[in-house]
Write a structure and sequence with these properties.
By secondary structure, the chain is α+β, with helices and mostly antiparallel strands. It has two domains: 166 residues, Beta-Lactamase (2-Layer Sandwich), CATH 3.30.450.40; 176 residues, Beta-Lactamase (2-Layer Sandwich), CATH 3.30.450.40. 40% of the residues lie in helices and 18% in strands. The protein contains eleven helices and eleven strands. The protein has a six-stranded antiparallel β-sheet, sandwiched between helices. It comes from Chromatium okenii. This is GAF domain-containing protein. Pfam families: GAF_2. InterPro entries: GAF (IPR003018), GAF-like_dom_sf (IPR029016).
């Protein structure tokens, strides 16, 4: 597909119109990732240079890569790293199979066992902004005859995004790094994560996760739930505290067969969402009579080894939810997802053992 044909793709038109009204860098990053997903790419990482660490590439947002956010890219082995080569040259670099290539993967790709990827630089038109301003690592489900057309569209998307970066970059989406003394929440975060790692059951873990996420983000309320592997329903033990008594929705429950609205979008797309004006979001379906008012919303899926395990939802922070809030909650989501997977495996093992004992 030629660049001219790629420019006529419906998603390019939609992306261009939406990006034009984005006022925040984080919103634009979400738009790039969402468009990447719409093109059928299951895993991707959007990386930007961080001036606080000598402009090293940092994953600012990812798709299908649990725990990748805020990861500083580094080589997995000595040699020419494909991602860095694409970033410095300003040209897209394909590696269908690292094992058969002279290029090396990044440590992130190595950790996630990515066998091949396409590295697309965020390069604007040369006569305007000649420097590459970031990188999109896209991992197609398979490399086939349709892949070049998809990548051509993504290249066009990345060019458009790069042209808007000078307008978006001055907005402080990523706070200036400070010392540990200036950021006491980091110590609190570490302590909270450690406590979550030492819980003995899903219910206790869910309550502890919600308490810490609410405190660290300044959220009024929220919920944490896990996916029942037998039914696929979302079970939310935390609904039994605080907000459950306040909520006046008829027929309220702690088990959701098919969540809708913003929470349903998070589960369906396995992608976090920040909605500081929730009713204007396309996925919003409003709230039923008697529901607690939601002024701001953030939802983060909990994924373990590619499997959806649950989600964390928070609402009504006094100020807008931001990238720091998302980073904090993502850390809890990673631990919650892994812990739920372990708890469910242990539960299944006990049930299997009991069935065998009953047969003896």
């Amino acid at each position: 597909m030629t660049p001219e044909i790629a420019a006529t793709h419906p998603l390019v038109h939609e992306f261009t119109e939406t990006l034009a009204v984005c006022g925040k860098l984080l919103d634009a990053l979400y738009l790039v990732i969402r468009t990447t997903s719409s093109l059928g790419i299951p895993r991707a990482a959007l990386c930007l240079p961080d001036p606080a660490i000598d402009d090293k590439l940092v994953v600012r947002l990812s798709l299908g890569m649990a725990g990748a956010s805020n990861k500083v890219l580094a080589p997995s082995a000595p040699g020419t790293v494909a991602a860095f080569q694409a970033y410095t040259s300003g040209h897209t670099l394909w590696v269908k199979n690292y094992a058969a290539s002279s290029y090396q993967a990044t440590d992130l790709e190595e950790y996630l066992r990515i066998s091949g990827a396409v590295h697309i630089p965020l390069s604007a038109a040369a006569d305007h902004f000649p420097l590459t301003s970031g990188l999109l690592i896209a991992v197609p489900r398979i490399f086939d005859d349709t892949t070049p057309a998809v990548i051509a569209v993504l290249e066009h998307i990345c060019r458009i995004f790069a042209e808007h970066l000078p307008r978006l970059a001055p907005i402080p989406a990523f706070p200036e790094r400070k010392t540990a003394e200036q950021l006491p929440w980091q110590t609190e975060l570490f302590t909270a994560l450690h406590a979550c790692l030492n819980t003995s059951n899903i219910e206790e873990l869910s309550h502890l996760t919600l308490d810490h996420c609410r405190t660290l983000t300044g959220s009024e309320f929220g919920f944490v739930g896990y996916r029942d592997p037998a039914t696929g329903f979302l079970v939310t033990p935390t609904m039994t505290r605080n907000i459950f008594a306040q909520c006046q929705v008829a027929g309220k429950t702690v088990v959701f067969e098919k969540p809708s609205g913003l929470g349903g979008w998070v589960l369906d797309n396995r992608f976090p969402i920040i909605a500081n004006d929730p009713f204007s979001h396309p996925a919003s379906v409003g709230t039923p009579p008697g529901h607690l008012p939601i002024r701001k919303f953030m939802g983060v899926p909990c994924v373990s080894q590619g499997q959806l395990m649950g989600m964390i939802a928070l609402a009504n922070k006094d100020s807008d939810y931001n990238h720091q809030d998302l980073s904090i909650v993502q850390a809890f989501a990673d631990i919650y997802g892994a812990a739920v997977a372990r708890f469910l495996s242990e539960r299944e093992l006990v049930e299997s053992r009991n069935r065998l004992i009953s047969l003896v």
